[in-house]
Design a protein that fits this description.
Elements: H1 4-7, E1 10-15, H2 21-31, E2 36-43, H3 49-56, E3 60-63, H4 66-70, H5 74-82, E4 86-89, H6 98-103, E5 108-112, H7 127-135, E6 140-147, E7 157-164, H8 171-198
Parallel strand pairs: 1-2, 1-4, 2-3, 4-5
Antiparallel strand pairs: 5-6, 6-7
The structure holds glycinamide ribonucleotide.
Length: about 200
């Protein structure tokens, strides 16, 4: 017999380029929620640890290259088949192509490890962000969850959270503080977005 709650489940797809600790955290969070689940993880890097994390958690793990994302529409077509309710960029380092943005309006969100609009844009990702912030002796940093548009880190901001920076902080300790904020808030915000969509 079919499970009625299962058929109502919302579908989340995650894109990530590297380690994927956020992707893992999001997968585990939704494995405990009845209304949604992560159905696939995509990575542009074949060796990215995120693909193993997804596989180990029984989530479909897919690798694609530049051509499949930007020229052949292969990634777009797979996404159309899945028809996700949310596409989540969690440490994804390539610009998202316009055809996918147009096909899934208001469904693509990114997390950035700083308080946008500060420390965003091309080249500002991962440890580069934390290094610049420590070098400039900023007193605070944080996370920004935002909709994705055709420019790096410029879509409408959905949520921000802050953390203080002390004089002892290093890029590594700041990265740790930022990851903690990401783990705490990112899945919750995704859940809120999905619930808003159902209203
Ligand atoms: C996260 O801190 C995320 O905010 C950042 O990459 C890290 C990925 O960590 N994203 C960007 O810099 C995007 N511009 P993870 O692979 O452990 O989840």
């Amino acid at each position: 017999m079919s499970n009625p709650t299962h058929t109502l489940q919302k579908k989340i797809v995650v894109f990530a380029s590297g380690s994927g600790t956020n992707a893992e955290n999001i997968i585990k969070f939704f494995q405990k929620q009845p209304n949604a689940s992560v159905v696939a993880v995509f990575s542009n890097k074949r060796s990215a640890k995120v693909l193993k994390r997804a596989h180990d958690l029984n989530v479909k793990a897919l690798h694609f290259d530049r051509d499949a994302l930007y020229n052949s529409y292969d990634v777009l077509h797979i996404l159309e088949d899945i028809n996700p309710d949310l596409i989540v960029l969690a440490g994804f380092m390539w610009i998202f192509p316009e055809d996918i943005l147009k096909r899934f309006p208001n469904k693509i969100v990114n997390i950035h490890p700083a308080l946008l609009p500060k420390y965003g844009g091309k080249g500002m990702y991962g440890m580069h962000v934390h290094e610049a912030i420590i070098q400039n002796k900023e007193k605070e940093s944080g996370i920004s969850i935002h909709y994705v548009n055709e420019n790096y880190d410029e879509g409408e901001i959905i949520f921000q959270a802050k953390t203080d920076i002390s004089e002892e902080d290093t890029p590594e300790s700041l990265a740790e503080k930022i990851h903690k904020l990401e783990y705490k808030h990112f899945p919750e915000i995704l859940q809120q977005l999905l619930q808003k969509k159902s209203q």
